[in-house]
Amino acid sequence: MSIDYLGHIDAPGHPLPLYSFTVPAGFPSPAQDHIEREISLDELLGLRLPQVFLARVGGDSMKGVGIFDGDLVVVDRAIEAKPGLIVIAALNNEPLIKTLCKDGDQFILRSENATFAPRYVLENDELLIWGVVLYSIRSHTNARA
Asked: Which label site among 31, 95, 119, 121 has the fewest CB atoms less than 10 Å from its CB?
């Protein structure tokens, strides 16, 4: 599993049209008169800039929660990392995306793929939490952003 840091999201994005109808399985041509309002993705997703950054995931240790190789993740540095949340962390300078768990005083970084063993944070290990994963973004055209 690898993480490529892509950088911070700096400023509010360009507003996009938000249509006032639900998209059925067959997508009808949206007409201009169906536009309810314009909204930026950072507003829609509730992103709190400048604490948010993007990272690209490499590997399949998180596929059990729908995060796959090549996906982008939106990460917030300002959210407190609590057990049960998916985090971007560095364990002994190795960047990871894992579910943060705790058993008593023992922190565990758990993969969401049964073929990967959990990573126990030992007494002499250095664990840095870079942020909490808010969203994952996947391209459906097989072209990476």
From this structure: 31
